[in-house]
Design brief:
The structure is a homodimer. Chain A is an alpha/beta fold. Chain A is built from 10 helices and 13 strands. In chain A, 35% of the residues lie in helices and 22% in strands. A 6-stranded parallel beta sheet of chain A has the order 1-4-3-2-6-7, with helices on both faces. Chain A has a 4-stranded antiparallel beta sheet with strand order 9-10-11-12, with helices on one face. A two-stranded parallel sheet of chain A has the order 8-13. In chain A, helix 7 crosses helix 8. The longest helix of chain A is centred in the C-terminal third of the chain and has 22 residues.
Chain lengths: 295, 295
């Protein structure tokens, strides 16, 4: 795997169809699953590693976000990446970023309420990566459901010639959705955090059993997490991120909660592409995540 | 010249280095000079013709903006374009444009004060053209000075691999800067509008004579246009669009005024690239513009 630090080098290293996986680093099996999928579908797999200050709000964990380039490079290479683009701050923002890309009507819900700058920062940096690297396909995790909706929309609106591919959430053996921020949790908090995925899996069972009413699905998640400080539990349309009353289109049931020092999010996607709803519960690891190997 | 209506066709028609010239149509020698320059510097010249609703404010002339595809196609082909991209509204915006691109700190001055949505609409559609068409160079008139600053900045900020080239303003034999909107002027208003370029040329003479104080330059323009309803007369830095006190960097002296039914803008650029200032007064036609030929 080649490691490059500039957009020009990254573009120059491309051969044939290019699959792109953006990351903030401190990667886990969720990122690695995106890279593996990209490797199966493209001739060049380009992974970016950059902790983007624009998408962290004041008081968030930009300064303390785990940065371990060597560890990350080994894992990313092992998953099949050809090029790792690890720009310094000065390559990404040689001057203050004055340009803003936003999708306000999709960003003003769910996580956008507590993190008003977050999605503008994500949309701006993703547009920059897609414009500057010109991949043919780009892979994002479904765990960041609202982010995936926003990126899909901005690519459509801005006619960026790239296909956005959303991939299943990867979970710990006990169901917890992988997140680099899970390492912030104490064992007790780790246990408490399980309520999110437990509630979502129970709701998935309800959907499989025929339940279509959003209130019933939301109630099911809330009951599983009576001890959890939820920011929201919502069933939303995948294209508009607007609340759905009855489940009859592509949607995701999304939760956010503060557990100790971490703000955790999780969701299940319900796909109506085949006519009848199929619930994507994600993929379970059989062993604990690599996140815990070096600690 | 090939005329195409979709982004995919326009991308497919490219060969070698691609120069791009975006237009709203009803073209004049200003646009044609951009196309000729693009033809001299690139293997494929791609011109877009699209009256972009996003950059017109409420009460502006979107509905009445002159649309004459056949006339425009003849002139654009004659200037050396290889591909004319003339998308229908449904190709550009198959669904409402929810994504916004903006450069707020550069857009909040000058024309952005009277036209708050304008530059967001311009930045959004230009990003879409650059992302969707992937040209190597894109040509813009210096007459739209603030627009050129904003586009240069967004391309820099978003790492879009295109070179933005600003080209001299083209003027009528009497000095009036070409604008498709000049056809809105009555003979009397046409005469009154001359005060803008007269004032700017007088200011250019002052700069050539060594004047560097912005107040003196601005006053010179205002004196030439005592009968004119100026929106602003300002000397601004080209990168920041912030007012300049003493002329010592790349800048432009910009004016806007309402003359009858039209809002007119004009400017002179002062280039410091060679050390000593050079004033770009634009290029004068020897005969009246093609704008008047078919009327």
């Amino acid at each position: 795997m080649k490691i490059v630090e500039t957009f020009a080098e990254a573009r120059f290293a491309r051969r044939g169809l290019v699959g792109f996986v953006p990351t903030l680093g401190f990667v886990h099996e969720g990122h690695l699953s995106l890279i593996k999928r990209a490797a199966a579908e493209n001739e060049t797999v380009l992974v970016s590693l950059f902790v983007n200050p624009l998408q962290f709000g004041p008081g968030e964990d930009f300064d303390t976000y785990p940065r371990q380039l060597e560890r990350d490079a080994d894992l990313i290479a092992g998953a099949g990446a050809d090029v790792l683009f690890a720009p310094a701050l000065a390559e990404m923002y040689p001057e203050p970023a004055l340009t803003e890309v936003s999708v306000p009507t999709l960003a003003e819900h769910l996580d956008g309420i507590e993190r008003p700058e977050h999605f503008r920062g994500v949309a701006t940096v993703v547009t920059k990566f897609l414009a500057g690297l010109q991949p043919d396909r780009a892979y994002f995790g479904r765990k960041d459901g609202q982010q995936l909706s926003i990126i899909s929309r901005l690519v459509f609106d801005l006619s960026i010639p790239v296909r956005i591919i959303g991939c299943p959430t990867v979970r710990e053996p006990d169901g917890l959705a992988l997140s680099s921020r899970n390492v912030y949790l104490s064992p007790d908090q780790r246990q408490q955090a399980l309520a999110l995925s437990k509630g979502l899996m129970a709701a998935a069972d309800l959907v499989d059993a025929g339940e279509r009413d959003s209130r019933a699905l939301i109630e099911c998640v809330r009951v599983a997490g009576t001890n959890v400080d939820f920011s929201y539990v919502r069933l939303v349309d995948r294209r508009t991120v607007q609340p759905v009353g009855r489940l009859s289109q592509n949607a995701f049931l999304a939760v956010a909660a503060r557990v100790g020092p971490a703000r955790l999010i999780d969701n299940i996607h319900v796909d109506f592409d085949t006519g009848s709803p199929e619930v994507d519960r994600g993929i379970r690891l059989t062993e604990p995540s690599v996140l815990y190997q070096d600690r």
